[in-house]
């Protein structure tokens, strides 16, 4: 049996604070629509939008107002060369990669991508360290893909990419700083990552 690969989970609609399930027996007009018992609504827009029978029961539909198309792409890198050398030294003392520390990272690159976090992870498992992005991603870099539903981070190791869990890396804190190790974008200056799979 092959090694089991972690999955990137898509958050369910009922976890969103804009999800509303109308449970009253009396029909009521609110949020710009008439609501009936059992109806499900999304309140993220200017007016409530009713879920149709053909919409997914749990996963966000294609029309979800929170979706970002294209997704936001960010690469985080060590703040300076000294931090990089220290991390490389300690990593050499262990058989596994160290967990990224938010205080040691800053933004290296910002762009967009057609990939969702799930699609990016599928490509990572197929291409590994050979995956091409608009900026050269080095070992110990952190890649963030944000499709509006849930940002997901991936840690670049020598072998490829590793999925970071929600509390493994604080992107909001790291986003306040800029890495001095920024490099010029590749792919002729294109800041969008394209799917290598036809």
Pick out its properties.
198 residues; alpha+beta; six-stranded mixed beta sheet; three-stranded antiparallel beta sheet; 3 helices; 24% strand
Care to describe what's here?
With 198 residues, the chain is an alpha+beta fold. The protein folds into two domains: 13-50, no CATH class; 71-193, no CATH class. The chain has helices spanning 81-92, 117-127, 171-174, and strands at 19-21, 28-30, 33-35, 40-42, 49-50, 71-78, 105-113, 142-146, 152-156, 161-164, 192-193. The strands form three sheets. A six-stranded mixed beta sheet has the order 10-9-8-6-7-11. The longest helix has 12 residues, at 81-92. Residues 184-190 have low confidence and may be disordered.
Output the strand order for the largest sheet: 10-9-8-6-7-11
Could you spell the SSE succession in H and E letters?
EEEEEEHEHEEEHE
- Segments where pLDDT lies below 50 for 5+ residues? 184-190
Radius of gyration based on Cα positions? 20 Å
Instruction: Categorize the overall geometry.
Output: elongated
N- to C-terminal distance:
28 Å
Compute the number of structural domains: 2
- Biggest β-sheet description: 6 strands, mixed
Estimate percent helicity: 10-25%
β-strand number: 11
Average pLDDT rating: 83
What portion of residues belong to β-strands? 15-25%
The helix-and-strand class reads alpha+beta
Number of DSSP helical runs = 3
Annotate the secondary structure layout.
Blueprint: E1 19-21, E2 28-30, E3 33-35, E4 40-42, E5 49-50, E6 71-78, H1 81-92, E7 105-113, H2 117-127, E8 142-146, E9 152-156, E10 161-164, H3 171-174, E11 192-193
């Amino acid at each position: 049996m092959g090694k089991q690969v972690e999955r990137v989970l898509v958050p369910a609609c009922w976890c969103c604070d804009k999800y509303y399930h109308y449970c009253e027996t009396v029909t009521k007009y609110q949020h710009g629509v008439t609501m009936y018992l059992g109806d499900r609504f999304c309140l993220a827009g200017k007016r409530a939008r009713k879920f149709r029978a053909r919409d997914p029961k749990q996963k966000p539909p294609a029309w979800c107002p929170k979706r970002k198309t294209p997704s936001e792409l960010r690469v985080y890198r060590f703040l300076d060369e000294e931090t990089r050398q220290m991390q490389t030294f300690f990593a050499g003392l262990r058989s596994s990669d160290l967990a990224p520390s938010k205080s040691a990272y800053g933004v290296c690159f910002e762009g967009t991508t057609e990939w969702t976090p799930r699609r990016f992870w599928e490509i990572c498992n197929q291409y590994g360290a050979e995956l091409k992005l608009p900026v050269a991603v080095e070992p110990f870099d952190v890649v963030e893909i944000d499709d509006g539903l849930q940002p997901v981070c991936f840690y670049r190791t020598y072998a490829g990419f590793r999925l970071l869990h929600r509390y493994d890396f604080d992107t909001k804190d790291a986003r306040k700083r800029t890495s001095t190790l920024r490099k010029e974008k590749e792919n002729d200056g294109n800041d969008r990552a394209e799917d290598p799979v036809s």
